[in-house]
Structures are given as C-alpha cells and as structure tokens.
Design goal:
By secondary structure, the protein is an alpha/beta fold. It has 2 domains: 233 residues, Type I PLP-dependent aspartate aminotransferase-like (Major domain) (Aspartate Aminotransferase, domain 2, 3-Layer(aba) Sandwich), CATH 3.40.640.10; 87 residues, Alpha-Beta Complex (Aspartate Aminotransferase, domain 1), CATH 3.90.1150. It is 43% helix and 16% strand. The chain is built from 14 helices and 12 strands. The strands form 3 sheets. A 7-stranded mixed sheet has the order 2-8-7-6-5-3-4, sandwiched between helices. A 3-stranded antiparallel sheet has the order 9-10-12. The protein has a two-stranded parallel sheet with strand order 1-11. The longest helix is centred in the last third of the chain and has 18 residues. The mean pLDDT is 97. The structure holds pyridoxal-5'-phosphate (PLP). The site of pyridoxal-5'-phosphate has 12 residues, from helix 3.
Length: 341
C-alpha cells in the first residue's frame, strides 16, 4: 500500500520512491545537464544504452515527450507514421505528433496479440506520389495493454521496415516488463529498433523520467527537439539517480508484479468475474455487465482504489504486496456476495 494507506491499482505510475531511492537522490552528484555536465544524467544515459544495446540515450521528463521527440526526429512536416488505434503515441498523447510535429498519423487496429499485422501495414504504405503523405515510420508498443510482443514478431517488423525503407520506433514504456515476462534480456526486446522510449516512472518506481535511445546521429537530432519542446533540465541528476537506482534494483522484481497479477486474476476468476488472460502486470476485467461504480465504492471500503470502467484495468507494481493481493481478492468477494446473488 502507499503512503496514504491505499492499495492503488489504477496504474503503475502511482509508485512512490522508497526510502533507499530517496537516499541516492539526496546524495546524487549534479551539474547543468543543458551544458551536458550532469554526471548522474550522463551515467544513466550510458548505463541504459549499454543495457539495451543502443548507441546513445537521452533523459527526458516524460514518456509522452520522449515519444513526441522520437517521432519528430524520425519524421518531418508532411511525413506519416503508421501506429495502432489504441497506441499511446496515437491516442493518449494529445495528438502531439500532428499538432506539434505536423506528422500525419495512419492508425490501424491492433490484432489480439497487440501487434500490427504487417500485411495491413504494407497495404497502408502510401505510394510515392504527390497526392499522399510520405510514409516514413512504423511505431509499435511493448507491452501493449500488458501484452508481450513475441521476439519473432519484433524481428519480422524490423526486417519489414528495412525492406520498405521505413524507420521503426518502439514505445517501450514497459519494455522491461516485456523482457522479464518473456525471460529475455532488454537488449533482445529493444536492441534492433531505430529508437525506443523507456519509462523509469512506471513499474521501475522512479518518480519522474523516461529515456529515449537510438543511434548517436538520431539522438543528436532528438537533443534539439528536446530543447525546443522545453525538456532541457538543469540539475536533473537528482532524478537520474532515482532512475539508476531503479535499473539496479527494480528490474528483476517485476516478476513479482507479474505473479501478483496472475494471483489476482485467478482469485477473481474463481469469484465469477470475466478476466482476460494475464501476460505481465495488467489484469483486465469485463465489467460491462456489472455496476462498475458500485464495485469501485465497495473496494474503497477495503482501501482498494480502481478507476471504474467497462473494461476495468488493474495494474500491479512495487506498491502492491502479496498480502495486498489477499485484500484485493477479499474486496472483490465482498462485492460479488452483495451483488451476484
Ligand atoms: C505511461 C506511458 C507512456 C508515457 O507516459 P508519461 O506519463 O508521459 O510518462 C507512453 N506509452 C505508454 C504505453 C505508457 O503507458
């Protein structure tokens, strides 16, 4: 539970920095990062580049800004990117690519696996003709609503983009969840992409920050866009220290979150809730036939916090313990006893 005594399942963004994380933030060596002189930021970028097998990293205030800067670094005015209908970079970032980048989105439906069917992507690529926007980039997401994309698909997508002269970006906000759930290294998940954005502020537990990774040349361009969009920070080492701590201490433990998610799914299934298969740290519950607002109120009596929705999302993270899992299932049981009979 968090410092307010709540078991907050709305997102893994709600994680709070632990005492140990705050300690390394307190003693972080800092400098002015706009001058490139913050040693802790420089180390975070280097450590994550090394881990992911990318040439260079760039510390960003948020994942939204990191994705925007990536899209603007790949595409110019009038270029087009192909993206999922439900993708964060399309649907949940205020339309930034179009508004600020003058980049045209071409959204396609994700398949059941959270992938974009490459045949459909092929059909969406515009011919080189003055009627059309210039198709430039494919953007994928992993994990996609908790789904882990297979390495076979990722390799095929990278190969496809090479063949069709497209760049390929990964919104890897939860790429570490994908690596841990798949039992593979983070480099295997993200290393072949032209660029990847990774959040430190989700399940990894840092209070703020994402890192954009790519080639030296790509990051050079991204650096200018970061400055232009207001993302140049000064003594940001205080935040980067939290990110370094997260990379050293909070990656392997994601397996515990995945396990807790499975336990919750199992408990709710036994109570009669319709639960989707769990792939990482997200549990989706079909609430279209129940009173989700009543469920939310019942759960609050157990200090369990959700955002009521027809497709309810429960997210596990380092603020949710195994003991909390018992409380969560008990809270759903209280609802089911009151309303299912
Ligand atoms: C959280 C998230 C982001 C970035 O979000 P910020 O809140 O801006 O850091 C990007 N993509 C996905 C899939 C996310 O879940």
């Amino acid at each position: 539970m968090n410092s307010a005594g709540m078991i907050d399942l709305r997102s893994d963004t709600v994680t709070e920095p632990t005492a140990a994380m705050r300690q390394v933030m307190l003693s972080a060596k800092v400098g002015d990062d706009v001058y490139g002189e913050d040693p802790t930021v420089n180390r975070l970028e280097a450590v994550l580049a090394e881990m992911t097998g990318m040439e260079k990293g760039l510390f960003m205030p948020s994942g939204t800004q990191s994705n925007l800067v990536a899209l603007m670094s790949h595409c110019t005015r009038g270029d087009e990117y192909i993206v999922g209908q439900q993708a964060h970079t399309y649907k949940y970032e205020g339309g930034g690519a179009a508004v600020l980048g003058a980049i045209v989105p071409q959204p396609l439906d994700f398949n059941e696996a959270g992938e974009l069917d490459l045949e459909k992507v092929r059909a969406a690529i515009k011919p080189s003709d003055h009627h059309f926007a210039n198709t430039r980039l494919l953007a994928l997401e992993n994990t996609m609503q908790g789904k882990v994309l297979s390495l076979e698909y990722l390799d095929a997508a990278v190969q496809f983009c090479t063949e069709h002269n497209l760049a390929i970006h990964l919104d890897g906000a939860r790429a570490f969840n994908a690596a841990v759930a798949g039992g593979v290294s983070i480099a295997q998940v993200v290393g072949k992409f032209d660029s990847v954005s990774i959040c430190l502020s989700k399940g990894l537990g840092a209070p703020v920050g994402s890192v954009l990774l790519g080639s030296r040349e790509f990051i050079g361009r991204a650096h200018r866009w970061r400055k232009m969009t207001g993302g140049g920070m000064r003594q940001a080492g205080i935040l980067a220290a939290a990110g370094l701590y997260a990379l050293a201490n909070n990656v392997e433990r994601l397996a515990q979150d995945h396990d807790n998610a499975k336990q919750i799914a199992q408990g709710l299934t036994q109570l009669g809730f319709a639960v989707e298969p769990v792939h990482s740290n997200m549990v989706y519950v079909d609430c279209s036939k129940i009173d989700a607002a009543a469920l939310q109120n019942t759960l609050l009596q157990f200090a369990v916090k959700i955002s009521a929705s027809d497709r309810l999302r429960l997210v596990t993270h380092l603020g949710i313990t195994e003991q909390d899992v018992g409380t969560i299932v008990a809270a759903f049981e209280a609802y089911s006893k009151a309303y299912f009979e």
